[in-house]
Design a protein that fits this description.
Blueprint (H helix, E strand, L loop, with lengths): L1 E8 L3 H13 L5 E4 L16 E2 L10 H19 L4 E3 L2 E5 L5 H13 L6 E4 H7 L7 E5 L3 E3 L1 H14 L3 E3 L2 E9 L2 E8 L2 E12 L5 H8 L7 E12 L12 E4 L2 E2 L13 E2 L3 E8 L5 E15 L13 H7 L12 E11 L6 E4 L6 E5 L4 H17 L2
Parallel strand pairs: 1-2, 1-12, 2-9, 5-14, 12-21
Antiparallel strand pairs: 3-8, 4-8, 5-7, 6-7, 10-11, 11-12, 13-18, 13-19, 15-16, 17-18, 20-21
Amino acid sequence: MDKVDVVIIGGGVCGLAAAYFYSKKFPKQEILLLEKNLYLGEEQSGRNSGVLHSGILNPKNSLKSELCSRGVEMLKSFAKAYNIPCETVGKITVATKKEELIKLDFYLKQAIANGAQDARIIDKKEINLLEPNVEALAAVYTPSTAIIDTASYIKTLTKSVKNNSVTISPSTRVENVTPNNSNFVLNIVQNGEELNLETKILINAAGLFSEEIARLINPEFPYKIKPLRGEFMKFNKKKRRDILMNGLAVYPLPSIMPGGVLDQYSKPRNVAGTHLIPTFDLLANGSYEVGSTVHVGPLSKETSDRSDYENNRSNSEEFVKQISFFPGLKSDDLELDYTGIQLKMEGYNDFVIEKDKKYQNAIHVLAESPGLSSSLAIGEYMVGLFRRR
């Protein structure tokens, strides 16, 4: 039976970030990263809007607040160092009805408390200066909001991890985990072959399936995931003048999460509504710029299947109804785009990044949005937990 020092389960941005920081801090340890899919980042990490968030939705004094603020700055620096497409485009979160105006002040204060010191409320006139085709009464403007090319980020992070001598094993599924004294024995299936593997340290960063892995380690794992499917469409912003955009991200005010999911205070959980997100175009010289394609999404739905990306897709008319703040867009302008499924915590609204209650040499990370924005800070934080052993 093979033995290694560290096993990381999950090859999304959080698993890769854990491998990146752990291998830098402990270069002599043998680290193995297991990913059940053929390619890294196939699930949550590669199926999101690519926005580096300002913290407008993060509860104050939470891990989300702390790690998103730090993580965005880390990720912007990382992108600059490795020439990853990343652009500060700004974002407006709009109120379209009088009764929504009072909510803007709450989200402004929350954004500022979470590190977005440049956030401010703007009126209809300034909205039209920023985005002439957006119709709203007022908005919270966060100029520091950025977008990143997630595929390039995952590719670069993977290369950095490999350069640090981390072994990455794709198409490897964990079937069982058995605590063995102070170690763990993993039963894995790699390309159809069943193998056993022993490790001293286990990091569970399995994303949508992290709850399942956690209960293999400790059946008393207390947290529960509520999957949420988000569908996306897209349009060409240069198609007509009345759908032309200057390149900001445009969001409605947050809405109640489908399914009536509650937080730890028995209050309904909120999610970002269907919004408009600029994207990058690859130029002939190999560089990138903010391009003409705009993502529209997510249109969020309950789901019980964490692998169902295509059944019962919403039609373009449903998307148009969700973005009343952009009236120039017609259903015929929209084309089908990708679908993502993200974990949401049921009965809890924060990141879970902690040692297992029973086995202190195992760490669980369950990171919902803003997991991408926070990913490098999450990886650093996880390594810090082991340093404090």
